[in-house]
Amino acid sequence: MKPNEHSLVPIWEKYPEIFSSDEIPDDKISILEFISEIFIPGEYYYYLIDILRQEITYQHPNITKIHGFTTMPNHLEEIINLIHPDDISFVMKAEEHCSKKMSEIGAEHLRSLKSCYWFRMRVADGSYHLFHHQAITLITDKENRVVRSLNIHTDISYLTKTNNYMATVVGFNDRNDFHQIDLSPLQNNKGLILTNRELQILPYIAQGMTSSEIAQQLEISSLTVRVHRKNILRKTDTCNSSSLIKRCIELGLLIYTQIINTTLDQWIF
Q: Is the pTM of the predicted complex or chain greater than 0.70?
């Protein structure tokens, strides 16, 4: 490994069709264009990754406050070093899964896909909090490979302290992708399988919409929505919307699929 290379480089190098080695200027990038209208539940920060140089730029100031940095970190390895040692192997597997899935979908769709998973990171007081990690492609080269990606980390320890060990690739804008794999050591997800339609309905339930309102949004009958709601409750072993939302947050379903068919700046992180 070359000096200053972070530990994810070997994985990225396995997928040259989606990760670029070209240098492309980013003087026209405005991170705030993507962040300003996003509601984020919990403390968060973001930064931009230069795939070629493995440097981070456009760091949100929260990064120093949350993690206790005395100076602004400039290299991705400084962020990776904050990950709990017991979570490193999972992060590697999750990155591998997400990269492989995006490669299968096709590099031409990278700017409409994001990868998501959770892991624990050390915070300023020396303890570890659970963070929700998201990576979104911002700049691609002429072959549609990633040149710069936006990473967003949100402290979700107030929601749950248990990692769901799920790696997920989600589509947005004009795509409805939802690919998830259980990478838990025991792979004990109890066989939970929601259909695409159930996953589509779930965010609307979380927003408190009635069956009639959801039916109008999706142009289906209210009866169909009610049947799907009952099936979702049964599959998640919950009895009402409140317990359903809590359960689906723990499973990583709602964090990843809050809003359907919206532009990037409307996504709830």
A: no
